[in-house]
Write a structure and sequence with these properties.
It contains five helices and twelve strands. It is α+β, with helices and mostly antiparallel strands and 223 residues long. Strands 4-5-9-10 form a four-stranded antiparallel β-sheet, with no helix packed on it.
Length: 223
């Protein structure tokens, strides 16, 4: 995934450095603050932190677990972790069998709610969590570092429109660098059109079509 910065509101500080420097940024923050640095990270990510001196492994999910981590403990001294549930049955220690109830839920809804999976003994690590693994005995401890809270705001509709526009302008100011050339995969829809409108500067637009159909024509007009 990627990390954009840390903090919130007036205390928010965007990540500095190269566009692909998220890992180095997290490593520096870890050296400065320990695992507590994840509590105010802004981004979409899954982190694996190995502390050699303490023989501990930390598995971290972002606030919505947008990049999931799946884990199985086939024995007292073995733990298997993967970013895709399909990879869990690969090690010979994992005896993969289906949980029929959760498999039915997955086939019906294309997902299993909560942290369960269609595989017996395989669970998804919860969102906004840090799971520490003691590598000496494979014991685990999971803590939740963030929870959503309900905070209604009574404002006119125009307030939220302006706020959304400000947020996107701020995001693109942070993400774009003057020394790089950017491209946009442009469709005829509103999403990519909105992204292009937010980009303050030239870019190269790409569109895939077999012929100049209606969507390709609209994409060309947008570009």
């Amino acid at each position: 995934g990627d990390v954009y910065g840390h903090g919130s509101g007036d205390d928010y500080e965007p990540r500095d450095g190269a566009p692909d420097g998220g890992a180095a940024y997290c490593a520096r923050r870890y050296r400065e603050s320990g695992l507590s640095f994840v509590e105010d990270l802004n981004g979409e990510f899954a982190l694996v932190v190995y502390d050699r001196s303490q023989r501990r492994l930390a598995l971290v999910t972002d606030r919505f677990a947008t990049h999931p981590l799946y884990a199985a403990t086939p024995s007292d001294d073995t733990m298997v972790v993967a970013s895709r549930v399909q990879a869990l049955p690969t090690p010979p220690e994992v005896d993969a069998t289906f949980d029929r109830e959760y498999l039915h839920e997955f086939l019906s809804l294309r997902r299993v709610f909560g942290v369960e999976t269609p595989l017996v003994g395989v669970r998804e690590l919860p969102p906004a969590s840090v799971t520490e693994v003691d590598l000496t005995d494979c014991s685990t401890e999971t803590t939740t570092y963030w929870r959503p809270h309900y905070d209604p705001v009574e404002k006119p509709f125009s307030y939220f429109v302006d706020r959304l526009a400000d947020v996107f302008e701020t995001l693109f100011d942070e993400w774009m660098h003057d020394d790089l050339t950017y491209g946009v995969l442009l469709s005829g829809g509103s999403d990519s059109r909105f992204v292009r409108a937010c980009m303050d500067g030239p870019c190269v637009a790409f569109h895939n079509a077999d012929w100049m159909n209606r969507e390709a024509t609209v994409a060309s007009r947008i570009a």
